[in-house]
Amino acid sequence: MPFHNFWFVLLLLSLETYADVLDSAKKKSDFQRFAALPIVAYSEETKWQYGAMILLFTRPDSLQTESSALDFAAYGTQNNQFQMQISPDLYLFQNRIHMDMDFVYWNWVAHFYGIGNSPDRNRYTTYDMTRYSIQVPIETNWGLPPLLSFLRYGLWAHWERNRVTFREGDINPPELQGKDRFGLGYRLSLDTRNHPNWPMHGFYLLWKQMFYNDVIGDYDFLSQTLDCRAYTYLFWRTSIALGALWDMRQGDVPFDALATLDGVKRFRGVERGLFYDKQMFSLQTELRRPLFWRFGGTIFYEAGKVGPYFGKLMRNEWHHAVGFGGRLALNRSETLNARGDLSLIDGQYIGMTIYIREAF
Fold first, then answer.
1. What is the band of 17 on the pLDDT scale with cuts at 50, 70, 90?
2. Is residue 2 part of a domain?
3. Number of domains present in the structure of the chain
């Protein structure tokens, strides 16, 4: 059986301010200030990978509000790849305003397999990419009555400077690549989840559109997303999560901004960029259960596909993935986990994803 994007974790260690945090740790006396996660991993794409994550938490305003957090991650690989990411996740004014920002620097070597739903994994062209990206989504329920506090509206901004160099390979390089991008959009959401990190019940619905303009950047295109999720408790501390995502691009889209199964949150374990096109659709289901101490486990099934337009997308064949994962609580009061997910993709390829927070 061929191995594709298989990660073997040698070390997963959580270093925390307190050795033991009570389940009711939102009490001021038990509040956890930070967590750290050193990682040593291996994959076909990166070879040996070394890095670390540090998470800082601020004390919430009350037991009914969420804690703000600052995530910092940096890692390099044996293939001379490097990524650094800073992600402030801020809850302000008693959760009335939420800002989940991303600042990314990426110096990466990757593969381009062409555009479409059925790539040949043995034919690709390698490229080097340097990328600076800032993403700032802001949402609020300000001005809405208490009965509608689960509704939110807001803005979404994205700026990116992207430079790409293609090498000799099997696939012709795409026409649209690199350069600068600037987009501004809006987002509308409905959120009845009992918690954003590991919800046990509730619904989440997000609609967002981003308009990229070639007056400020170098491209003129539209990005829009419909994200639907549902959660419910089953039995024996086990809950089920269901998700569906439709992602669409329209206009002159650079190849790396096309709709894709990203391999981290959607269709875990697949190499990012293996599936690129103007539209993407994915379905997810996952059983989640706390186990003991800080550990938890999941079993999941995912399906996804891409296509140039909606009619073709619906006719294209599904790709399937089944798998299981482990969870290590970095902050139990916030139910914030480090996760490792192992999956079997299309019955042939094994992949693994390491990340923080749940996939959906």
1. very low
2. no
3. 1
